[in-house]
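Moderator note: this is an archived Q&A kept for reference. The question asked for a predicted structure of one protein chain; the sequence and the answer are reproduced below.
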Amino acid sequence: MLKILGKRLVSSLAVLFVVSLITFFILKWIPGDPAQLILGTEASQESLEALRESMGLNQPWLTQYGNWLVNLFRGDWGSSYIYGESVRTLILQRLPVTFSITIFSMLIAVPVAALIGILSALFKDSPIDVFSRSIMQLGTAIPSFWLGMIFMIIFAANLQWFPVTGYVPPSDGFLPFLHSIALPSIVLAIGELGILIRLFRSSMLTALEQDFMQSAQVKGLSRATAIVKYALRSAVIAPITVIGNQTAKLFGGTVIIETIFALPGIGRLLLTSVEQRDIELLQGIVLFITFMVVFINLITDLLVAAANPLIRMETGGKD
């Protein structure tokens, strides 16, 4: 296990370095002068030059990149010229929103997908299987922005079961908080059902065809006992990886949902930084999202290794 952790940490650091390098230099190539955007078109040339020098924009790009990395390790992520605050502060303020809707959407999607997918495999070609395959098609075909607007019109504006927009922090009460994120979380969860149901169904079908199911019957175990004891344990290993990947994808892909429901999350902050060309803020958000994706994938890999003894054997035994 320690060998797996070491390899994943090295690859994770390499990914973070490459992403930081690409992000920095691509943003430098984008047309536009940050100093001009900050001071406006009426600013004098002397003021622009003074601001560029204070921001280090007159230095070579490699020097700017090195200084940026050094400041990152010191905990200084730069300052946003739009908000006039620290980039780290702005991200941490909006992290609970994005984290909440991501986690709650997966808490909805995974149990529902597991139930439907496993039942579909156990009763193959039955009406349950037909229903599950229909859900798969709908879940992958319906765009999240369209579904979000439809749900907002039906369940928020007309039925008034949920608030149309806005976010209530947990400090103001757990039920109001849950009420404020329920609808966007459900929309995100529906978008994940298609791939998750298909995965649970195929994993369960594969498990049911394994030799250990026949061995269990030879030992006199009932089919129900064999399914619970052997098939289910085997079927959940493959979905762990995909669930982790989908969670990481959702964490970096909530821009549309946060914009539709006016949620003050990281996705909406990313959109604002792109629209206003706030380079410091954009760099910080991209690197933070990359870090979270890498971290979630690292945890996923460790969970898969812990659940599958074959992986541990291939990478060096029980350590």
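Archived answer notes: The chain has a mean pLDDT of 81.
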